[in-house]
Design a protein that fits this description.
By secondary structure, the chain is an all-alpha fold. Helix content is 84%, strand content 0%. The two termini are 41 Å apart.
């Protein structure tokens, strides 16, 4: 028997390539923000202040993502998933590429950080419509009993994009001096993103519209204003989805952006040495996503997410103290563990979030919930971690993960309650 993965290979590649580019683009910015953007684009008050400003610019894209979710969700629910995914990819890619050509604060003054923030906002706007559309592309093509395994494929873009971004930074760092890297080497990964964008467009232009959206459009006309319908009829379930997403963003950006900044500044490790440590931990994210996807089709995505949230709460109690010990071996262990746990709070989302919304407003609902959760879990994560670290050391940093796990667990329980109430009402109407 031919595997459904083989039958729908082009669809799955199209969903995977977009999220790969998403995480590549986001992580080259996160890496550059942790390593060089502070002194390059912001006034020299103190190294800590520059790093905080750099992380603030990093968080700006998360603020833009909900606007992108509404914008691209509107068109994704009205004209289709395919066209919208092409548009979001173009906006995301052009914004990333243009960062490579920016002047620095030393040459352009306040114009430099202004332009950086504008392009970062453009990145976030495009990204706001990316993950939701990619997840729907996979899930709405999935055969019966395969939704979670199809839905996990876009999530695999996270480790692939991370390896591509970190690997390129590592290669550049091995062949350039610190002075050369700060002067022009950091621009190379942003230029290289054009290759991935071209590949993504080529794949996405060859796919067809999803069957579920086609059927929904045949039954009823599209919603005139999808976000309006979402607010009127699905506000509470959207909040539940938003809270559930918090944990995966918190784990990822504390394990990557904050850990890299902390390891190369406070702990004093060589940049290449710490990048290798993170690269060695990232396969555990891929493993966690795959295991979680398979288990979700067996026992249900909700159950797998509950386990992941509970593990996140426990992770927060050990993450900060182990990071503070300074041992590179122990840091690798805790990063690998964190990323494996992330697979359980991230992998099932591709199938779980779309199940909360009807097809006619699903693109908007999934995108808004996912990206609003990104503000709470991702935008604030490096910034809050840096502030907690300054206030009480790394032991305080892990508390952010514990709180994120509690938020996500509460969101899951709320969503479960709402779905049960909806089923009861449907059963009553059927009688």
């Amino acid at each position: 028997m031919v595997s459904p993965f083989c039958q729908h290979r082009r669809i799955l590649v199209a969903s995977l390539v977009g999220t790969t580019i998403e995480f590549y683009d986001f992580y080259i910015y996160a890496t550059a923000a942790a390593l060089v953007f502070g002194p390059l684009f912001f006034p020299a008050e103190s190294s800590s202040a520059q790093l905080m400003l750099s992380f603030l610019s990093f968080g700006l894209a998360f603020l833009a993502r909900p606007f992108g979710a509404i914008l691209f969700g509107h068109f994704g629910d009205r004209i289709g998933r395919k066209s919208t995914l092409v548009a979001s990819l173009l906006l995301m890619g052009i914004s990333t590429l243009l960062i490579a050509f920016l002047p620095t604060y030393a040459t352009a003054g306040w114009i430099a950080p202004l332009l950086l923030c504008i392009l970062r906002f453009g990145q976030g706007l495009g990204l706001g419509g990316e993950w939701g559309g990619a997840a729907l592309l996979a899930v709405e093509y999935a055969p019966l009993g395969w939704r979670a395994r199809f839905g996990m494929v876009p999530q695999l873009g996270a480790p692939i994009g991370f390896v591509a971004a970190n690997g390129l930074f590592l290669l550049i760092g091995m062949h350039l001096s610190d002075t050369e890297f700060a002067a022009w080497g950091w621009r190379i990964p942003f230029l290289a993103s054009s290759i991935l964008i071209a590949l993504g467009l080529w794949v996405r232009l060859k796919i067809n519209e999803t069957p579920e959206f086609t059927r929904a459009l045949a039954q009823d006309p599209p919603s005139p204003v999808p976000v309006g319908e979402l607010i009127r009829k699905h506000t509470t379930i959207t909040f539940a989805g938003t809270f559930t997403v918090v944990a995966c963003f918190a784990i990822f950006y504390l394990s990557t952006a904050f850990a890299l900044a902390h390891g190369t500044t406070t702990l004093g490790y060589d940049r290449e040495q710490f990048l290798i440590t993170q690269l060695a931990a990232i396969p555990f994210l891929a493993a966690g996503i795959i295991v979680a996807g398979i288990q979700s089709d067996k026992s249900g995505a909700n159950q797998v997410l509950v386990r992941g949230c509970a593990a996140t709460i426990g992770l927060g109690l050990i993450f900060g103290p182990i990071l503070g010990l300074g041992s590179l071996w122990l840091i690798w262990v805790v990063l690998a563990l964190a990323l494996f746990i992330m697979g359980f709070v991230y992998g099932p989302l591709g199938a779980w979030l779309p199940s909360l919304f009807p097809a006619r407003i699903r693109y908007t609902g999934v995108s808004v919930a996912f990206n609003a959760g990104g503000i709470l879990g991702g935008a604030l994560a490096p910034l809050a971690a840096q502030a907690l670290n300054d206030a009480g050391g790394t032991s305080f940093v892990g508390l952010y993960l514990t709180i994120a796990g509690i938020f996500s667990l509460a969101g899951l329980q709320l969503a479960r309650h709402l779905m049960m109430e909806d089923r009861k009402q449907v059963d009553l109407l059927a009688k």
